[in-house]
Amino acid sequence: MLNNWLKIAFINYKKNWLSTLINLFGLTIGLTGFMLILMHWNDEESYERWNPKKDNIYAFQTHNKAENTYGNNISYPMAERAVKVIPEVKDYVLFNGSGMGYKMTTKTKTVYQGEGMSASESFFNFFPFKLVSGSYKDALKGDKVIALSTKAAKNLFGKTNVAGETVKINNKSFVVTAVYELPEANSQIKPDFIITPFEQMKGDKDQWGNFNYGCFFLLKPGTDVEALQQKFYNDIFLYRAKISAQGAGVTPVKYLELYGPTGSLFTPIDAIKLHAKASWFGNGDFKTMMILFTLSVLIVILSAINFINLKTAQASRRAKEIGVRKAIGSTKSSLVLQFLLETFVICFASYLLSLALTELLLPSFNKFYNKEIVMNDWHIYFYSLAMVLAVTFISGLIPATYLANFKAIETLKGNFARSKHGIWLRNGILTLQLIISSFFIIGGLIVNNQVKYMMDKDLGFSGKQVFLVNFSENDAKPWMKYERIKNEMRKIEGVADVSYGEAVPGSNRFSNSNMDYMDKSIMAQHGSMDYNYLQFMDVKLKKGRWLNPDLASDTIANVMVNEAFVNKFGWTDDQAFKNEVRPGFDNKPYHIVGIVKDFNILNPRRAVEPIIFFHYRETDWKRYNVYNIQLKIKPDDIDGTVKRIKAYWQKNVEPGYPFDSYFIDKKFAESFVKYQKQQTLFTILNAMVLMVALLGLFALSSLMIEQKLKDVAIRKTLGASDGTLVFGLTKQFLWITLIAVLISIPISYYLMNEWLKDFDYRIDMPVFPFVLSLILLLILTFAVVSIKAYQATKVNLVKYLKYE
To answer: Which residues are listed as membrane-spanning (predicted)?
Structure first.
């Protein structure tokens, strides 16, 4: 029986070769997209799974409930108190630097070693890397010890058995206490060396408001995380508020409302890559992942819809065959199984083709996402095969069930194609397919408009030809280094101007603190800078004046702010000049002398945050954080000027260190890459959807028009013109398209409006995509269907009329 079913199946594949090819193509494309996105998702979820303690390690994030914003920092005394007073917390590890680099000296050589990390002494209790040399006991205790990866050990000593050796950094000796091997598995935490921020932690021991650290907590197994978050509020946040509230003249609860954060959030370490609201190692984007995965599933659904439609149309042509089989005793179950087998053969063939195509496309996909995914995870094969079986079951079961339930006498008369069941099934499924296609067209156009809007938006500054060089060498007095070299670098041929700014567009490097005025407080970024920095970046002055190096007060107590700062306090510009603010980093009042237009330094999707600008010498600690020098380059010989700057830097400023530099406009442009990739993927998926849908429409219309060839012959004999016949054959499909687009419009509007809510700078919902979707789909439907309709008008009349 099985052999007989397979013979019938292959006869029908050959007889309906166009439908068979379209089904194979559509399912292969759909399954390939599904597998690629699934591998991408699985790769993102795989980070930190190597860690044997992953089930009990949680990343700490702060939550400002009033503004619904998240932070990734904690203060040292908060972490220390949590271990002391909350029984569920066993240990903590703090970070205050990653991606660090130093010039290190051994007995035999001096080399630059990068990718380092500054972490507290319990690091190896959280990350038990394989130990190669030395011991983890007290490996990070004190300020004169260092742990090295095998890569760093080989770079410095040429071997890995180097525990007890000495390394000099900035003329300070460090003893190598441990050498470890980094895991090959995915991890965001892969430092090539680790030192402790001993002196900084010593100074921050009682500084509850210095949120300078990222933090992981090690919890007891079975800890109720929601209950733990409440304990953090009661035992940590309120405790801190009680210490500071009395001096502020408010209650502890009111203090939290004013100065935040008001809550905490704990995310498992193996979920931070994709699910963390805020992370020291970069925020995840689970929402975008779900959108991509949903779209890939929709393409598979479209392919399944094609399959259902075409199988239904073909089944109607096989009605007499089925009627005969039922008449001689075939059961409903055997008919259903036969259809399922025919469907499974096509689906499994598509599955094998999609595996090959996925392997072929994987290098390009890895390059697109900067990954190294390989097809060695059984989950990919399991879930994709499960999808194949689901498509087989649904695509085969629907037409088989309809046909198997038809009465034998009606199938023998060939009435299935004209029955309400057959017509409503095909039309309903075709409508669903066109609804999805319409959504993709509308969504793709809106995504393109939003990305273009962000890229074209006036950012409020000009980073063109501004070249930034980061300080790699840690100087005891970095501001003195800047002041020493800025006049010398100004003399380099091709350099037009020199300046320094802390809040650099595109750097993602900033600090902030509360800004207080009477009983109101806001969070604002720090913009320590040289006097000319805002003019250097072509920022526009809205009101007031620039900082002036000739005025002593501009170095002591005068600041500038942006429009967002003024608006956040609810002031007018004139009120801002009359009021004085007290920053959280200082206890003295500061007077506002100028207001600049808002300019975006962080992200094109986010609203400009309040910033306070002041000279870097204004506070004792800010001058120690001077970390770059910026040069405006003349346009006539940019490449030559960069070469001269690099040569000067490596010879006179930081010999032996890498030349860490970039153009600010190009760096800021990298913040658009994520959205450009979304735009590219949406465009690719859009093209795939339309291709699958239109091919399915062509095959379905071909089958349905073939069933009407006798009607066409009769009408042509009676004098109907070709135009009338073509319109008559396409009219039904045009009505279905119109209805589908009208249904998709509210659905698309809602879903795309939800997507746009993630952008502070967003377009107004445009009408054009909805209108274009309707026009485009009507044109494409008419074009696809009319090809077969026109061919139908050229039928041999004798062939279709000779039996009447």
So the answer is: 21-41, 289-310, 335-358, 378-403, 424-447, 681-705, 733-752, 767-790
